Automatic annotation (TrEMBL):
Keywords: Hydrolase, Metal-binding, Nuclease, Nucleus. Transmembrane segments: none annotated. It comes from Gossypium davidsonii. This is DDE Tnp4 domain-containing protein. Residues 35-89 form the DDE Tnp4 domain. Pfam families: DDE_Tnp_4. GO terms for cellular component: nucleus. Belongs to the HARBI1 family. The keyword Hydrolase applies. Its main location: nucleus.
Length: 91
């Protein structure tokens, strides 16, 4: 239950497909066999979905700053989220 990939900078709701496309298109992003994206995505999504929900379920109660609306600039807010994820992984 560690954070491996945290995608910051998008406000509001982001779909799983959008995150997957972003991860795959990065220079050093995930490597997926050609033609297998849909099957691979379904398999990984179903196996990881509950773990991801549990991680965020632990992260928000532990770090109160994530439970309230943030009025910090987006750059500062992104750094706060990364710091909370890193501390979560460390603890």
């Amino acid at each position: 239950m560690h954070f491996v990939y945290v995608l910051l900078g998008w406000e509001g709701f982001v779909t799983d497909g959008r995150v997957l496309r972003d991860v795959i298109t990065k220079r050093h992003g995930l490597k997926v066999p050609h033609g297998k994206v849909k099957n691979w995505r379904n398999l990984k999504h179903s196996s990881a979905h509950n773990v991801i929900k549990r991680c965020f379920g632990l992260l928000k109660p532990r770090w109160g700053i994530l439970r309230i609306p943030s009025f910090y600039p987006i750059r500062v807010h992104n750094r706060i989220i990364i710091a909370c994820c890193l501390l979560h992984n460390f603890i």
